Amino acid sequence: MEPKDKCLHFYNICYLFLICLFRSCTDILHCLIFTLVILSYVALGIVAWLHGDPRKMIHPTDSYGQFCGQKGTSNAKPILFYFNILKCTNPAVLINLHMIFVGLLISLAVSLVFILLLRFTAGLLLWTTIMAALLLLAYGMWYCSTVWSQLRYRQGSEVAILEVGLQTDLQIYLQLRQTWIIFLIEASIFLMLIFLRRRVLMAVTLLREASKAISYIMSTLFFPVITFILLTICISYWGFIAIYLASSGEAVYKVMSPDVSCPYVNSTCNPETFYRTNISNSALCLGSKCLFAFYGGETSYHRCLFLLQLSNLFVFLWLVNFSLALEQCTLAGTFASYYWAKRKPQDIPPCPLFLSFNRAIRYHTGSLAFGALILSVAQLFRIILEYLEQRLKCVDNTLSRFLLCCLKCCFWCLEKFLRYMNCNAYIMVAIYGKNFCTSAREAFFLLMRNAVRVAVLDRLTDFLLFLGKVLIAGGVGVVAFFFFTNKIPVIQEEVPSLNYYWVPILTVVIGAYLIAHSFFSIYAMCVDTLFLCFCDDLERNDGSSNKPYFMSPELHRILGKSNQIQ
């Protein structure tokens, strides 16, 4: 190693050491609140476990509240058939098909190879798609203008969309000139974005750079396993609490009488003491019985069951969003260490994924919890609106349906915006170690100063990754279809006998799509991180010897060409 290279290497080590030395805990208050909520969540699980009995939801009961078909009870009749709902959830049905797992392993390998090959094929895929999109957009603009010109002479086509209002028949909107004008404008906007060749070229270079970064830090491809484990724990614990809370009611018995004039009908009773009371001996209540009615209760605990279920749902959303935020912040810190390395890959610190994970847990738990909390509140409101819509379906009120539709649309947009801003805020938290609000503000204004680049890069990245997911899931699905329908003569003996082959095929397709999504989410996070670092690099440095760029030579060449054109 030359003396100059040794100095640069020593400088990078000192820089990383100073970053870790002066990095401090952020959003401590939210970290403490998050810790208290987790402890309260554990306490809620204990309370639900003490009061609940899942058998109430699984097994049927007779008129006396006794479980049917269970050993040790008076209803244990060996000849009588009882339907066991647990057999529907038995995974052994799918496990016995060892070829489903083969298909999922194939999709995993193809996803990995696809991401690594994007380093060489991203440009070809994108430019081929862009040429196809140009042809489709040209045809779409011609068709929209043709239909609009035909509607000019049709009576009633000049009515505005707002005057028509919400209609279930979409053909009504297609008869309006304003609709086709909107389509024409949207096609023109997409066409303008496609002709931003330099921006597209920069996006392609960033996509290649992301694939290169992943190839240098292959450990990032295995981090979704940790996220999967965390999400599995969250979902299992939420289901555990939900089931035990739903089954924590006590058996409630009501007086049932053949004579409707009995004054004690539907009143609460105790079957053990019922026949020692005067109710059954009353002249109006002869033949009355104390029978099981439902599970419930009149205690304060039973009256708060709905609020406890709502709390269970909210904390579950918070924990899920925190797990995803931890993954995003960890990956962002890892890929940022790649970008800010002067020489790639020599100056990338050892074990960058572990170092980034350690920083995220040690210093930024509060920031991640704060961002996850904001997103969880928006998601909870969306779920409440869905619940209200289901309850108000029987009410024929156009105004209420319209307001609910508007609120659902607003909260859907809010959730998408918060999810996008949280992701970029976590990137800034991972890079500079500031609190959540400061990082979100800096990320927002940095994106606004590069709005055109953001629009082009986001659309191209989303489309490329979606295309990759569809190709992988569709390809594996086609292979699964030929296999399970005995269309491959070489391995016909390995095909199990199936009554309905679409079940394993759909299982393979859905599993392949989810596997591809987990891999491509890493790639998308890498692209977003490198893009923010790139924009920040442009603003902090000027390419001089005193302030050199940290970007790769490929990005530097693209930037130089763009500056020459501008």
TrEMBL record:
Main subcellular location of this protein, as a coarse class: membrane
Q: Which one of the record's GO molecular function terms can you name?
A: antiporter activity
Q: Which residues span the membrane?
A: 32-50, 93-118, 124-144, 179-196, 216-246, 313-341, 361-385, 463-484, 499-516
Task: Report the membrane topology from the UniProt record.
Answer: Multi-pass membrane protein
Quote the subcellular location field of this record.
Cell membrane
For this protein, the record's InterPro entries field holds:
Choline_transptr-like
Please verify whether the record's keywords include Cytoplasm. no
Matching Pfam families: Choline_transpo
Q: Which reaction does it catalyse?
A: choline(out) + n H(+)(in) = choline(in) + n H(+)(out)
What is the recorded function of this protein according to its Swiss-Prot or TrEMBL entry? Choline transporter.
What is the name of this protein?
Choline transporter-like protein
**What is the organism field in this record?**
Amphiprion ocellaris (Clown anemonefish)
